[in-house]
Backbone:
């Protein structure tokens, strides 16, 4: 394993960085299919309760993160209805585990992801999808061969936005899965912890630097990829 | 294969009730906006579920409300050519052309891609993307894409309406080739009587959601009740005799010789010539000292005064019928009456290039029926 920054970062700091990256990656990957599905439903379908779904998706964006974390704890904790069910049927426990941090990050990042993808879907001319239908493509094939490639830039933008949000998630995570080093102590939580103890300033500053670098890299990468893909998809 | 349409649909106080059976070839749905063309086409394509109806191409039943049969659009096997092309921007021309074939049933035998590419002259565009094509090129690719999906019916919804005059003139010949070289029936929507005259095997004139007239183009375009005075025209079948050096083409028709601005067809080819009724001038005596080059002599078959100042004068010229739209005042001044000999004067330049086109399907003979008077 590459241990360059591990030499610069203390072991506890390095662990927090790695945990953060893992949590954010999983949060993004797991929520992406749902994000595309929900965005498609919101952009293209009319059904009763659409506004309720829209509100539900956006709730984490407006609620205090602590409240979102508390609600997750109520639902997914070991005594929560969903938590009990998950443990009984699948043996999955998320409370106070790194998987719980994934759930918290995914929920908090979800509205940003859905927004980006929904905008991309709304920009696709439904007449193109109609044309694909007349050429023999079923709904699923129309989506896979026309809609999906055309919204790829939006999906990438949404995913990277979600990843960046997941890396920085603090309030819901600390409320839901607490601040356990090696388990749930992601980078922001570690920075917070370092700032609570005397002499932790330096470690906090190093982690803050890492956070800035990751955020900038994510931004640049998303710009780069989105531009490449847009040229590929709409280009000449 | 015959196309049988029977649609009844009511919406927003508009009632569409159409029953049409048309022979193979190009069936043109002709009418102003609001006449029900789009509703009809959407019902055929499966984008609209009509209150009642049946749509069948030969024995391929797309819709039969009585039998509760409604094929979804993607299973109708219709090659839909849209007004705006609707090419997929993320695919190359080659991939666009191949798109429909991919979804065609295994046992379907689509046209050979080579032949279609050749027919439409798009071979040099295959590796480009739609963003780099002109409007006319896009529409040619769209025609090819529809053709290669192995359709049982080709549906063209005003495919030229979004193009300028030059592009229209570029695309029309490809539709003529489609009509003459492809066996699939074509349903073509248009509000241009020039397109009707050039392309149609059968014209269905729609008016207020009902069929006002149905028949060969010469007959329907001469029916003022069906198409209105502005679109009224005669359609002559003519043979190209020569192309003169001064830019005129000489044509021989059953009505007599015509001199027209240079047309695209080769010497010996048979073409249809649309002559708008308002471009025809009438004279009781053989005109002299006139700049117009075409004078056709015939007898007056009928005179029909219109609601306004106009009147229609139908002439029998040789074995053809020619309709002139003049004023009632002129009819009175010249003392025109049925049975009289009369000369029809036509300026060469009044016939635009888009009024003349290749004629093959079902228009070689003079009109089978007299005009509905």
Residues:
């Amino acid at each position: 394993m590459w241990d360059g920054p591990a030499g610069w970062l203390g072991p506890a700091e390095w662990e927090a960085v790695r945990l953060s990256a893992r949590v954010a990656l999983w949060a993004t990957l797991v929520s992406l299919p749902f994000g595309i599905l929900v965005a498609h439903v919101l952009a293209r379908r009319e059904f009763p309760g659409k506004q309720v779904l829209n509100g539900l998706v956006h709730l984490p964006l407006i609620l205090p993160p602590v409240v979102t974390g508390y609600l997750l704890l109520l639902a997914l904790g070991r005594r929560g209805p969903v938590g009990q069910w998950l443990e009984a049927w699948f043996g999955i426990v998320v409370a106070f585990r790194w998987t719980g941090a994934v759930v918290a990050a995914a929920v908090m990042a979800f509205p940003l992801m859905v927004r980006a993808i929904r905008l991309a879907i709304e920009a696709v001319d439904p007449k193109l999808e109609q044309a694909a239908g007349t050429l023999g493509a079923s709904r699923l094939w129309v989506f896979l061969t026309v809609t999906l490639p055309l919204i790829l830039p939006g999906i990438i933008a949404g995913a990277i936005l979600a990843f960046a949000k997941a890396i920085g998630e603090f309030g819901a995570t600390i409320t839901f899965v607490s601040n356990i080093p090696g388990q749930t102590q992601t980078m922001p939580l570690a920075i917070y912890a370092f700032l609570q103890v005397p002499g932790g300033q330096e470690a906090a500053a190093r982690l803050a630097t890492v956070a800035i670098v990751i955020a900038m890299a994510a931004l640049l990468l998303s710009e780069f990829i989105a531009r490449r893909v847009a040229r590929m998809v709409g280009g000449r | 294969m015959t196309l049988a349409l029977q649609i009844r649909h009511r919406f927003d106080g508009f009632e569409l009730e159409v029953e049409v059976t048309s022979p193979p070839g190009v069936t043109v749905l002709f009418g102003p906006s609001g006449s029900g063309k789009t509703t009809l086409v959407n019902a055929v394509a499966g984008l609209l579920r009509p209150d009642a109806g049946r749509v069948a191409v030969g024995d391929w039943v797309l819709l039969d409300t009585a039998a509760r049969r409604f094929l979804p659009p993607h299973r109708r096997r219709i090659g839909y050519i849209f007004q705006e092309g609707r090419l997929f921007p993320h695919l190359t021309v080659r991939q666009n052309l191949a798109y429909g074939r991919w979804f065609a049933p295994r046992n379907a035998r689509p046209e050979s891609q080579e032949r279609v590419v050749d027919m439409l002259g798009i071979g040099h565009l295959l590796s480009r993307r739609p963003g780099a094509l002109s409007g006319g090129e896009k529409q040619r690719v769209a025609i090819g894409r529809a053709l290669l999906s192995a359709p049982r019916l080709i549906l063209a919804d005003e495919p030229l309406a979004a193009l300028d005059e030059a592009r229209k003139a570029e695309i029309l010949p490809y539709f003529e080739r489609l009509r003459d070289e492809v066996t699939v029936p074509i349903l073509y929507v248009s509000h241009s009587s020039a397109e009707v005259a050039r392309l149609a095997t059968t014209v269905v004139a729609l008016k207020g959601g009902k069929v006002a007239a149905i028949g060969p183009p010469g007959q329907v375009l001469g029916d003022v009740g069906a198409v209105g005075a502005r679109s009224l025209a005669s359609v002559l079948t003519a043979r190209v005799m020569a192309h003169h050096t001064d830019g005129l083409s000489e044509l021989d028709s059953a009505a007599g010789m015509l001199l027209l601005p240079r047309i695209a067809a080769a010497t010996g080819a048979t073409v249809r010539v649309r002559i708008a009724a308002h471009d025809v001038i009438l004279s009781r005596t053989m005109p002299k000292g006139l700049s117009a080059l075409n004078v056709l002599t015939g007898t007056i078959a009928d005179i029909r005064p219109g609601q306004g100042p106009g009147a229609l004068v139908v002439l029998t010229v040789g074995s053809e019928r020619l309709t002139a739209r003049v004023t009632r005042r002129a009819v009175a001044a010249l003392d025109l009456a049925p049975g009289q000999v009369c000369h029809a004067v036509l300026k060469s330049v009044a016939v635009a290039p888009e009024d003349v086109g290749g004629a093959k399907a079902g228009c070689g003979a003079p009109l089978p029926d007299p005009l509905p008077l």
